[in-house]
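Forwarding the complex inputs:
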Amino acid sequence: MFKTLPDAGGATVIVVINGAPFSAPLGCTAAAALLLAGAVPSRTTPVSGAPRAPYCMMGACFECLAEIDGAPNQQACLVPVVEGMRINRQSGSVATKI
Amino acid sequence: MSAAFDYVIVGAGPAGLAAATTGSSLGLKTAVIDEQAEPGGQIYRAIETVSARRPAHLQLLGDDYAVGADVVKRFRASGADYLPLTTVWQIDGGRNVFTRGNGRASRIAAKRILIATGAMERPVPVPGWTLPGVMTCGAAQTLLKSTGAVPAGRFVVAGSGPLLLLIAAQLVRAGVKPAVVIETRTNRLAALRHLPAFLSAPGYLSKGLNLIAELRTAGVPIHSGASNLRINGDDGAREIEYDWHGHTRREAADVVLLHQGIVPNMNLALSLRCDHQWDAAQRSFRPQLDAWGNSSVDGVQIAGDNGGIIGAQAAELSGGLAALAAAFSLQKISADDRDRQARPLRAKMKRHLGARPFLDALYRAPQVVAAPGEPDTIVCRCEEIRAGEIRRIVTEQGCPGPNQMKSFTRCGMGPCQGRLCGLTVVELIAESRGISPGEVGYYRIRSPVKPITLGEIAGLGV
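Prediction (whole assembly, two chains):
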C-alpha cells in the first residue's frame, strides 16, 4: 500500500508480520511497517468485524491497534520497530493482559 | 519511579520546544514529555533524522519543515530533560503528571504544567471513511517525514485546507502523483473581507499560489468545488466518488487521503477541567486562556495549536510567552523582565495571527462535513455509530447532549475516547436541537486519557 522512496536510506531491521519476515526501515513505526508490507486490513473491529487499517498515524484514532510482541491493543503508530519484533493482526475484541 | 520539576511540558512540537528552551534559559528545571521518538511534533516530525540521514528529503518537504531543525537544535542545547516515547495518561489536581513509557508508569511532580499537545486533523465523516486505505493527509505526511514512504499505487487527495495542497505537492516532488486533487467547496466570499490582513502576513499567499502552480505544472488535475465525497470498497478503498460541476465522477484509488483542517487535540486539557468555549470561526472548542497561556486551572498553561489553531510559527512564539509567565510565577524573573522579553514575541505573533481570520473563513468546515447528512455515515469509528442514529435519538428520544448520547449508543466510549467523533456528535446534536454547539457542550473526558494496564498502575507504588 505504501513504498519507501529509493533515497530513503538503506538501514533496515527484520520484523515478523503475521508470521512472515519483513524488512522494515530502521526507525519506522510498527504501523508504517504494516502499510509498507501491505498487511492490511490490519485488524477487524470488535463491534461488527469490519476491516480497518491505520488512519491518523499520530496516536489519536486507535485504528492501528495491533498485537506487538504478544501484547494486544498496542497503538502501532507510536511503537518504533526493533529487530525481531512480532506484529500480529487483531481480530475483533481482544482481552488486554493486566 | 518519581521525579520533580519546576516546569513539565507535554508535547515536543514548536510550542513545547520553545517553552522548554526559554524556561531552561530562565532557570526553570524543565522536562518535556512526548509520544514520539524525536522532538519536533507533527509539523517538524523526524527533522533530526531527515537532516542527518536523508537531507535530500528536506527539499521535497519544503522550507517550512526545514526551519524546524533550528527549533529542535535550540531545545537540545537548552539542558531541559526530554522523555521521548512517553505518553501522559493523567494529570491530577496536585500537578502530578503520570506517564507511561517503556512499559512502565511513572509520576512526575510539577510546579507548573504546560499542555502543548497540538492539533489533530478534523474528522472527515464521509461514507467509506473507515475503509482500509482511507487515511488523513497528515498520516501521509507522517509517513513521508518519518519513513520516507509514499503511496505505492493509485491515490487521491480530497477535502480542503492548506495541508491538502501541501501534501499533494510534497508527494509530487517525491515522484508520485495523485490521480486527482479533489477540493471541496471553500468560502471565498466570506474570506474576502479578511484578505488585506492576510496579505500583510508574511508569505502566506505566495505559498498557496506556488503550490497550486506546482501541481498544475506537474499535470495534476485539481477539481475545486466538489461535494458529496464517498469512498467505495469492500476490504479496502477501491474508488472515490464525488460530485463536480453537476456530474458524479469516480476515480479508482486504493489510498484516499482526506483532510478538512485541524482542531485542538483537547483530551488532556479537558481531563483537567480546563474551561473551553465554542469558537464559531474555527468550528471547534478552544480553551479559555489569558495572554500568557494560563488556563482556568491554577498552574496549568496551554500553548500552541492546543489553545486554538494558530500555526507553527505563532505556536513557537506562544510557547516562549508561556515560559516567561511560568518563570515569573516561580520568581525567576521580574514582571518587568517578563514584559520586556515578551514584547518582540508579541509583535511577531501579531503578524502571524493576521493571516488566521482569512484562513479560518476560507476553510471553515461546511455543515455537511461537521454534521454529515447521509444517515449511514459512521460517526463514531470505534463503536460504529452512524449519523442517522445520533439524529434519531435526539429527535425521538430527546437526548440533550453528548454525555447522555454515550448512554444511548456508546458513542465516544471506544479506545479513541471520543477524539474522532466528539465534534461530529456535538454538531449533530446542535443541528437536531437547533442550538449552538457551545450550548451542547462536549464529552466529559476523564483520565486515563491514554491506555495503561492495571499492572502498570500497580507498579507505580503510590
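Chain B has a mean pLDDT of 96.
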